[in-house]
Amino acid sequence: MHHPSLRIHGALAAGLLAASGAAGAADWADNAIGYRYGTRFAEPYNPQDISKNIVNFTHSSGYKYGTNFLNVDLLMSDSKDDNAQEAYITYRHTLDIGKIVGRDLSFGPARGVGLTLGFDWNTKNDNSYASKKRMWVVGPTLMMDVPGFLNISLLALFESNQPKGVSSRYSYDTHPMLNLAWGIPLGSSGFAFEGYMNYIASKGKNEFGGPTAPELNIDAQVMYDVGSTMGMGKNTLRLGLEYQYWRNKFGNPHEVPGSLAKTPMVRVEYHF
Fold first, then answer.
1. From which residue to which does the signal peptide run (predicted)?
2. Closest CA to 68 of 97, 107, 28
3. Between 20 and 30 A from 192 (CA), which of 72, 161, 182, 223?
4. What is the dihedral of CA 105, 111, 116, 119, to 10 degrees?
């Protein structure tokens, strides 16, 4: 007899596979490589400010029935975090229910209703925790009627990890996340306000038997289209400032050193 979570994960995987196949004929697509840098990153159980260089690849696309979003971060820490290297992958597929059923489902401030499926995956080679996170997500999404986009999702998280010192993969309690993701151009100024907010409920006991706490992660940036002023085409080269506020990072309670991060960053992106 299969465990219920395996059936859920299998259904999510099948749904994502079908969605990715359907998305083969994209109506629009945007790819970008980027770089950001900050000197005040934090890691739980580490009281020091950490500097990180982060290189990323981002893909966004839309097709008849929905949108895809993929982000791959390669994070490189300084000696205060063991000169660690980390890869973190986020994928989200949002199906537009109105387009699937052929009806206008807009109401009030919302221009549509969707279903979001996806996953997070990471690996890190530091000398302490050495995260190996695996997480599936699924839940409803409201697409708000704003310039650009603002999506509000309530997602169920099915998360597990197998850090250093844990002999087998540990699954946390299934828990909810309220997610906001936005990209809003500021008129014709060339500036845009972008980012995300995650409010994540407690996920029960951690893999060592300790408590977890609700988690708040806000990552926002103001980006400027410098490429247009250089004759490179609209939004080809973008430069900006980013700020991340992360409380109870990875669900660690506030009394844990390094569980609160307040991190300003510089960011540059090249779109193609």
1. 1-25
2. 28
3. 72
4. 170
